Amino acid sequence: MITRIAGTVAIVALAASCASHAGSSEAVPETAAAPGSERQCFFLSQVNGYTHVKGSRDRIRVSTGPRDVYEFQVFGSCPYLDDAENMGFDQTGGGTICSGLDIDLVVPTPTGPQRCPVRMIRKLAPEEAR
Prior knowledge:
The protein has 2 helices and 6 strands, in the order H-E-E-E-E-E-E-H. The protein has helices at residues 2-22, 126-129, and strands at 49-52, 59-63, 69-74, 88-91, 103-107, 114-123. The longest helix is centred in the first third of the chain and has 21 residues, at 2-22.
């Protein structure tokens, strides 16, 4: 009898805590899409190359398909980014990559690999990607 009452109380408490968050007016996280816009994400397995942005030490363009190109901007300067002939992508979570928080670049340097956190990712329009 006591375990049945304790179980019922636990279920009611859980339901109440869920209900209190359902109607809350908390700020929408930055990774959520704006109303009417579509999130533009990709999987790490879709990356098939990258190019340097001329004159920039903090940006690269990553291609993920025949027509899909994303521009990555790192926090601050990544000194060897513009010279890197190869680099790694370190995904910070599973699933899709939608924002800079989802991935870091790993750039080879003379003293060893340097981690360059990505600040911003944006999908380029076809005319920008050319």
